[in-house]
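Dear support,

Our group has been running a series of protein-ligand predictions, and this particular one with flavin-adenine dinucleotide is the one our PI (initials K.S.) wants archived with full inputs and outputs. We had some confusion internally about which version of the output was final, so please treat the block below as the authoritative record. The input we submitted was:
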Amino acid sequence: MVRRFNRLLYCVRSNFHTSNGLASKEHYKIVVVGGGSGGISMGARMKRKVGAENVAIVEPSEMHYYQPMWTLVGAGAKTVQASGRSTASVMPSGVKWVKSRAIKIDPKNNTVFTECGKEVGIRTL
Ligand SMILES: Cc1cc2nc3c(=O)[nH]c(=O)nc-3n(C[C@H](O)[C@H](O)[C@H](O)COP(=O)(O)OP(=O)(O)OC[C@H]3O[C@@H](n4cnc5c(N)ncnc54)[C@H](O)[C@@H]3O)c2cc1C
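Confirmed final output from the archive:
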């Protein structure tokens, strides 16, 4: 119950600050699901190919972790905190950050559905 409430609060907050309503639909040429190292790199590459305004990255986490550093964390040479940066700081500039979790991908209709009720349309999936 508390977890569900926190998720709802999170959705309201993230939609509030991007000034998008719940259950809105946006369209992009490229949508990357997951803003980890792979997703951020792919988003940056796609931005160069099709332009930032045509790329969205769906990523719920405020923090981005550089996992290779975790080997050093395990060895006691680094802290977990040192491996993290804010997702905002690694998001390619101009690319749309859809701050939510993808819950369904509908390849027939080229749509990604998020936990916050947003539908993200993709020209090419
Ligand atoms: C200890 C360790 C050491 C490593 N060392 C090396 C190395 O030396 N060299 C090397 O090349 N690689 C190394 N790797 C591997 C490398 O870190 C990974 O290959 C890389 O992080 C994978 O990137 P990714 O974006 O695919 O996944 P991740 O970085 O895991 O990112 C996945 C992202 O998807 C998001 N996500 C999850 N579910 C959803 C959802 N439903 N909707 C939207 N977003 C979602 C998560 O929040 C996360 O941000 C290491 C990994 C580990 C754990």
